[in-house]
Design brief:
103 residues, alpha+beta, 6 strands, 28% helix
């Protein structure tokens, strides 16, 4: 009986953990001349993950400060499908957030 109860508790805890959190990284679309910082993260249909956008916000603010700007704001984002599965579903998605340093 205790083994069954322990298994049910572990299953409940495992169900609440959610997808793993990943750290977004700088993207090639970053442009110092335009004052734009791009941060990107990849997630997938079969291996979902949750980007830590609060850490990306902090990294973008640091990059803007290193360029001599005191602030940054979210200027937009883009989602790009990097590959499809055999049923036509997007299996790998790149999400890129753009920050305007001159905002």
């Amino acid at each position: 009986m205790r083994a069954i109860l322990a298994a049910i508790c572990l299953a409940g805890v495992a169900a609440c953990t959610g997808p793993p959190v990943v750290q977004p990284s700088p993207h090639d679309d970053t442009s110092r001349a335009d004052g734009i910082v791009a941060m990107t993260s990849v997630t997938g249909l079969y291996q979902p993950s949750q980007p830590d956008w609060s850490e990306a916000d902090t990294a973008a603010l640091r990059r803007c400060a290193s360029w001599g700007h005191a602030d940054q704001r979210l200027a937009g984002w883009r989602e790009t499908c990097r590959g499809w599965d055999r049923w036509g579903r997007c299996a790998s998605i790149r999400v890129t957030r753009y920050y305007d340093c001159e905002g």
